[in-house]
Amino acid sequence: MSNMIIKEQLRSTSLSSRSHPSTFGTEGALSKVETINATTSSSESILMGLASLEDLYDCVEEFLKMGSTQRVMSSYGSKFVEEMLDESLRLMDTCSVSRDLMAETQEHVRDIQSCVRRKKVAGGGRGDQLDVAISRYVGFRKNMRKEAKKLLGSLKKIEGGSSSYDNEHLGVVIDVMRRVVSVNVVVLKSLLVFLPGTQSSMKSKLASLLVKKKYNHDATKSELETLDYAICGDFSSHDDLQKKLVEVEVSIGGVEKSFEGLFRRLIRTRASLLNIISH
């Protein structure tokens, strides 16, 4: 998913929302997410999106604490709150699984790093331990691709849109909350495209054929895709591989940390919605 497409999808979510004094803070944070202008499918662009989502959910929390918001949602919007609660579970599940995938990626990367260091000290060849570590990584990446596909399918079940309501304030609240969910879905989709990379980037040992043919690692490749080609082929040197492993460890670590922050905010928002519907 290119960032230009992501940007257009984010912008399209804002067209139906009507302005209201109570939504100014949240709309400002929404605009920040909608105007993300990253140029590559990299961890940096993902981090920008996740950081903006964290700020957005901080504003959402304040929005949901407003007496006017709570009154209109508890009096007229109970059905919508139920829908939001269902969607929040789907978003939380996506965050949880994605976070676990990144943590497991870190484990595999560190395992390979350890094998590379030991082999470098011993000198020469790849060694059985390194081959085993790489084989495990290849298997994990295949499973990651399957998990990402399932999560993308789950996100597609979250429906947006807007409707007309007899209560104008309720209509504004619902439109804004739907925009929040929509931008969240778009950012999560971009992450789920980033994590597995392209299908052709991982063909077990066959990837070495691509390396031997001097496959062109263009600027559109993510850090993980670049690492896939490096470890599955005949990498030029242990130092080169170690450098790529460090880059991935740092980038994935940053995304994992940001995901933890987003997950906590999703839990908090769900608690606020439950509080509204219980009164």
TrEMBL record:
<dbReference type="Pfam" id="PF03087">
    <property type="entry name" value="BPS1"/>
</dbReference>
<dbReference type="GO" id="GO:0048364">
    <property type="term" value="P:root development"/>
</dbReference>
<dbReference type="GO" id="GO:0048367">
    <property type="term" value="P:shoot system development"/>
</dbReference>
<protein>
    <recommendedName>
        <fullName>DUF241 domain protein</fullName>
    </recommendedName>
</protein>
<dbReference type="InterPro" id="IPR004320">
    <property type="entry name" value="BPS1_pln"/>
</dbReference>
